[in-house]
């Protein structure tokens, strides 16, 4: 039984069908990649799972219960935390305060442990706004971890990072799964990262799921190659 | 060691503030205490506005209307129900808190300038609303405490005895208002310190991140509106008691704007400078008349002063205080 099951999910924006009858699943303890060209609907799927958007059709089941009756602010309590593609930080808060807002980290000690884990201990009292982009992404990660999630949704965690940082990120993602007993669903453009860390991959194109499988299977899938390289390839 | 020093500095500052509060009326004329009392009413309303606008980021240009609810609750209870004036204050706060909550509901669908405009409309409509319910509010005449129920007005005989101290009515109004103001500041501090403040500010900084961190936006926003309304209501009640009359002109649009000016000058999103914001709002009109009474000049000085303050202190008095204290706080709270 999958921890997260998305069933026949559809979401339209005006005339555009951003997510079109998509079904996908994420098993407990898995790292699953969600990939696809720009505008394929990946982030929309995230926003549907976290209830920022209401689906036009379909069902989302997490831990055997529907998510559709949970309000957006209740998602974190159900055990789902996320990061954002374009970092969403609290401009007036310090790094530590970001972590303290996570539900399970109201006490300072746990918050500091998490900051240490993502390598931000020395920056705890700095305003998150002043940090480098890479460090800001780790603040988001720390905030998500602090809520004690079972499922972590990472939206382009490698975006804006340099080659070396991407390498560290891959290791960190694998380590987090172990240390926090996480299931991870990640949207990512950086193929090397996805193919390196993901157990399975779902591929979206124009809002539809066009392939699923292990990284190796997906890389050789005709539909996927066509989606990325165009029909003439 | 450093922590102890920080603590004692803090205690020293609070004691100094309390000493000023206790002895100030004895250094100014009796009549002047009344002006200070009115500044205190503004202070309370500004704290409430700062909780709403400064902390949760919801701009209100209608706080004068919430003050009116408080003021008229007090006046109606005194004149129609013959309550003693000071006992009406809690009820005025509750009434305005409920109205604040109700105003907060449509505010959930509005933000930024749209919310500012909607609340502004409330402030504009308030005087006409008041005239409409003339049975309760006395219409354009308003409600006069002195004529209709002088026995309910504390200190009318000129002397008030509180805890064995006998004082003039003006001193009584000063101490009453600022005592409530200090308690109000303390309550606000308890609310925004720690988790409550983080929740408020998260809504202001990024709604999308706040909601994804488990913050209930609707509840937080309406709670802030209700709490802010309580402050405005108490301020309105005190304002009414100080003036011994309320009428539709007591709470005009300009009060709403003045309160926002006070909150901005005092420093949105911090509590430390709000006293200065209140004093600014109370005394700047008088000061600008002192420069020249020629027609238009006071208004010009007044506007120019606001612009100059905003350029020099974009984060208000609170921001300035924070900046001045930063070397000290950094030193105190950095582990050697």
Summarize this, please?
The complex is a heterodimer of chains A (233) and B (336). Chain A has 233 residues and is an alpha/beta fold. Chain A has helices at 42-49, 75-78, 95-100, 108-117, 133-146, 163-180, 191-197, 215-219, 222-229, and strands spanning 4-13, 16-26, 31-35, 57-62, 65-66, 80-82, 151-155, 183-187, 200-205, 208-213.
How does this model look, in words?
The complex is a heterodimer of chains A (233) and B (336). Chain A is an alpha/beta fold and 233 residues long. In chain A, 34% of the residues lie in helices and 25% in strands. In chain A, strand 9 and strand 10 form a beta hairpin. Chain A is globular and about 50 Å long. In chain A, 43% of the residues are buried. Chain B is mainly alpha-helical and 336 residues long. Chain B has a single domain, classed as Orthogonal Bundle (ABC transporter involved in vitamin B12 uptake, BtuC). In chain B, helix 13 packs antiparallel against helix 14. The longest helix of chain B is centred in the first third of the chain and has 27 residues. Chain B is globular. Chain B starts with a helix and ends with a helix. The model of chain B has no long low-confidence stretch (mean pLDDT 86).
Uncertain runs of chain B? none
- Name the shape of chain A in a single word: globular
Class by SSE composition of chain B: mainly alpha
Domain module tally of chain B: 1
Strand element count of chain B = 4
- Count the DSSP helices of chain A: 9
CATH class of the domain at 4-68 and 149-229 in chain A: Alpha Beta
Instruction: Please indicate the percent range of residues of chain B in DSSP E strands (runs of 2 or more).
Output: under 5%
Instruction: Tell me, rounded to a whole number, the average pLDDT of chain B.
Output: 86
């Amino acid at each position: 039984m999958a921890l997260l099951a998305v069933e026949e999910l559809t979401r339209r924006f005006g005339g555009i069908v951003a997510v079109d009858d998509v079904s996908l699943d994420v098993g407990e303890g898995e790292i699953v990649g969600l990939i696809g060209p720009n505008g394929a609907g990946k982030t929309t799927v995230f926003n549907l799972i976290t209830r920022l958007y209401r689906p036009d059709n379909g069902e989302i089941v997490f831990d055997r219960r529907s998510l559709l009756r949970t309000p957006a602010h209740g998602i974190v309590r159900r055990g789902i935390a996320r990061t954002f593609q374009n970092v969403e930080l609290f401009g007036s808060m310090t790094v530590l305060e970001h972590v303290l807002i996570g539900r399970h980290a109201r006490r300072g000690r746990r918050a500091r442990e998490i900051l240490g884990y993502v390598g931000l201990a020395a920056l705890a009292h700095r305003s998150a706004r002043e940090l480098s982009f890479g460090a800001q992404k780790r603040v988001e990660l720390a905030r998500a971890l602090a809520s004690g999630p079972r499922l972590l949704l990472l939206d382009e965690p490698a975006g804006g990072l340099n080659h070396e940082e991407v390498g560290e990120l891959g290791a960190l993602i694998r380590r987090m799964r172990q240390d926090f007993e996480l299931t991870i669903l990640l949207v990512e453009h950086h193929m090397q990262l996805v193919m390196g860390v993901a157990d399975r991959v779902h591929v979206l194109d124009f809002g539809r799921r066009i392939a699923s499988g292990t990284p190796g299977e997906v890389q050789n899938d005709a539909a996927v190659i066509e989606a990325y390289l165009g029909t003439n390839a | 060691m450093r922590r102890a020093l920080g603590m004692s500095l803090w205690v020293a500052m609070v004691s100094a503030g309390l000493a000023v509060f206790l002895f100030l009326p004895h250094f100014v004329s009796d009549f002047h205490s009344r002006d200070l009392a009115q500044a205190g009413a503004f202070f309370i309303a500004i704290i409430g506005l700062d909780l709403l606008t400064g902390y949760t980021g919801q701009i209100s240009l209608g706080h004068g209307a919430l003050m009116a609810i408080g003021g008229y609750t007090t006046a109606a209870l005194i004149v129609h129900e013959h309550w003693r004036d000071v006992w009406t204050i809690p009820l005025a706060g509750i009434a305005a808190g409920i109205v604040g909550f109700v105003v907060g509901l449509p505010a959930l669908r509005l933000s930024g300038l749209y919310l500012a405009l909607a609340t502004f409309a409330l402030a504009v409509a308030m005087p006409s609303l008041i005239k409409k319910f003339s049975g309760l509010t006395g219409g354009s005449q308003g409600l006069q405490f002195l004529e209709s129920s002088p026995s309910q007005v504390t200190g009318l005989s000129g002397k008030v005895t509180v805890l064995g101290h006998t004082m003039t009515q003006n001193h009584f109004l000063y101490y009453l208002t600022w005592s409530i103001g200090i308690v109000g500041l303390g309550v606000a501090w308890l609310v925004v310190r720690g988790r409550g403040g983080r929740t408020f500010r998260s809504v202001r900084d990024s709604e999308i991140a706040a909601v994804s961190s488990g913050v209930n936006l609707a509840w937080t926003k309406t709670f802030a509106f209700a709490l802010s309304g309580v402050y405005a209501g108490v301020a309105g009640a005190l304002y009414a008691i100080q003036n011994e009359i309320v009428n539709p002109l007591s709470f005009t649009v300009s009060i709403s704007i003045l309160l926002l000016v006070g909150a901005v000058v005092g420093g949105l999103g911090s509590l430390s400078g709000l006293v200065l914001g209140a004093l600014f709002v109370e005394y700047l009109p008088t000061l600008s008349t002192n420069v020249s009474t020629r027609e238009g000049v006071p208004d010009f000085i007044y506007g120019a002063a606001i612009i100059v303050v905003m350029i020099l202190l974009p984060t208000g008095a609170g921001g300035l205080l924070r900046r001045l204290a930063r070397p000290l706080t950094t030193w105190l709270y950095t582990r050697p």
